[in-house]
């Protein structure tokens, strides 16, 4: 009987062990299945529907009087967010301030626009792959900042855009890494001209500024107006506004010009201003259709209207690389640019943020950026 009891006990124990093992393996299979499904979802094509029932011109929101007195917080349009699994800002809190110099900076970024060195036919990465590389992004290309410290550097990146999808993928791949290692809190706004008319960079910049200023998610203190084909080569090039009496021009050394500030350059490429500085200038001129002189116009506004100095960091590592490309057919050289520039001071008080009549046709929040589709006022 004792032997039978021992055999029975051993059988019961063996069954129990097998049941526990089966349960454990089953839980792991479930975990693996969830992990696989989550990662496979990154490969799916993102589809969206946009509500266009509340499009409006900015002139309905911004009167002809002082822009500073306008209520721009009513400008937001309905947007369709894309369902994507990202960390929420509620779980990313730090009670101590971030250090003035981020410990995450690594220096040279290794910018590569060719792809051959990587031996990778899929270069630049797709938007989905960029989102997978930066899983802490929230919809709209919003990064709530590091989870171990509290950053005071809140940055809106505003990119005037049309027909440069490949350039945008390069830009987003690098800029997200740079800004996150700088421990900034930021959001990327891509302001796309949504028509077949001549490109108007100034109206896109002004539209992007008003929309970003209206962002209740993080209230940016610093606005960078950024060409999509210009990428920083070093993450120590800080996207941090100077404020006060100084406007920041970052891209004064570009490989196209052998990293020399030359050739009649003003403040093109990458320029950073605070909200107060940009409003004092009345933003960019809306009058420049086509290529040329809109940067010279804002340069004059900075110096003679704002009475600001233009700060260009002297450090040797502050360099930018430009993507080589042909001239855009819908952005021809503006033959009126010289006459417009000569009359900039006569137009400044009534040509800019307070006279903007562009129309937002739709807003889409991708994981990597917010896409704002805009129709500028026709010429």
UniProtKB/TrEMBL annotation:
It is found in: Membrane. Pathway: Protein modification; protein glycosylation. The chain crosses the membrane at residues 14-36. Keywords: Glycoprotein, Glycosyltransferase, Membrane, Signal-anchor, Transferase, Transmembrane, Transmembrane helix. Residues 98-241 form the Galactosyltransferase N-terminal domain. The keyword Cell wall biogenesis/degradation does not apply. It is a single-pass type II membrane protein. InterPro entries: Galactosyl_T, Galactosyl_T_C, Galactosyl_T_N, Nucleotide-diphossugar_trans. Residues 249-326 form the Galactosyltransferase C-terminal domain. The keyword Ubl conjugation does not apply. SUPFAM superfamilies: Nucleotide-diphospho-sugar transferases. Its EC number is 2.4.1.-. PANTHER family: BETA-1,4-GALACTOSYLTRANSFERASE (PTHR19300), BETA-1,4-N-ACETYLGALACTOSAMINYLTRANSFERASE (PTHR19300:SF61). Belongs to the glycosyltransferase 7 family. Catalyses the transfer of galactose onto proteins or lipids. This is Beta-1,4-galactosyltransferase. The lineage of its organism: Eukaryota, Metazoa, Chordata, Tunicata, Ascidiacea.
